[in-house]
Amino acid sequence: MTFIIGALAFWIGAWWANVVLSARPATLTVRIAVPILFGITVLVVWEGLVRGLDVPGVILPPPTAIAAAFARSLDILWVDFVQTVLKGALSGYAIGCGSAILTAILIDRSQFLTRGLLPVGNFLAALPIVGTAPIFVMWFGFGWQSKAAVVVAIVFFPMLVNMVQGLASTEPMQRDMMKTYNASYWQTLLKLRLHAAMPFAFNGLKICTTFALIGAIVAEFFGSPIYGMGFRISTEVGRLALDVVWAEIAVAALAGSLFYGLVALSEKRVTFWHPSNRT
């Protein structure tokens, strides 16, 4: 009962502190402090409720147990991170998004591809990953290549749709102005349309950061070497080592947040001219 009371008291205090911070000007310190305080509050309440209610570790381990498992499994977590994130997710992300951008440019040049390829892409995007992942494992083997192929299939269509929409976002007056300067298609593409498509492209890139990581992890459930986040999660669940499972989940969450943050930071640098970044 003491843990529960302490957790609730901390939650009330943190709520008050967040209300006070949110009322202040949105400086960099405030923008960083609010989510950090919120995250700490979630962990403290989690710890207090799990210990106060005496929840078994095989149901939900407390954050301290997860932190201990994280500390003693750093070597394993690093190997899994390299296999799943750096090899499977990032390579598939780069290939899938890059090919989607090139395909969007081809679609933009052809009405036939616009009317024919987009519906087919929509159909392929609707295929369930649990059905396609085993097929890719059979085609490309148990290594990271099959996981990268799954990621390519997942991220390709969302990136394609955003890029096609971005290329079509320019105003008719802007395109007419380029024609008055006798600009070719490629000059218009490089100097106007790609520039205008950047906000849409980065929307697709940010969405695909999450899809890439999820796809690589899920693909490892259907066949992988003796390492990888998906392999580790499925193995440790069978052994009821939920603290290790949550440690892997924490690594995936941190990697996904860092990945998303890097793309968002790049967006601010590239699309500084866009109204959404004029703060």
3D architecture notes:
- The protein is mainly alpha-helical and 279 residues long.
- The protein has two domains: 2-55; 70-277, MetI-like (MetI-like fold, Orthogonal Bundle).
- The protein is built from eleven helices and no strands.
- It has helices at residues 2-22, 28-52, 63-72, 74-109, 111-125, 129-140, 144-167, 172-180, 185-219, 229-238, 242-270.
- Helix 1 (2-22) runs antiparallel to helix 2, helix 4 (74-109) runs antiparallel to helix 9 and helix 9 (185-219) packs antiparallel against helix 11.
- It is flat.
- The relative contact order is 0.11.
Features:
279 residues, mainly alpha, MetI-like fold, 2 domains, 11 helices
In short:
The protein has about 280 residues and is mainly alpha-helical.
Can you identify the CATH superfamily of the largest domain? MetI-like
Average predicted local confidence, pLDDT:
82
Query: What is the name of the CATH class of the largest domain?
Result: Mainly Alpha
CATH topology of the largest domain: MetI-like fold
Q: Architecture of the largest domain in CATH? A: Orthogonal Bundle
The percent range for helix content is over 70%
- Quick one: biggest sheet? none
Q: What is the chains' assembly state?
A: single chain
Tally of individual domains: 2
According to DSSP, the number of beta strands is 0
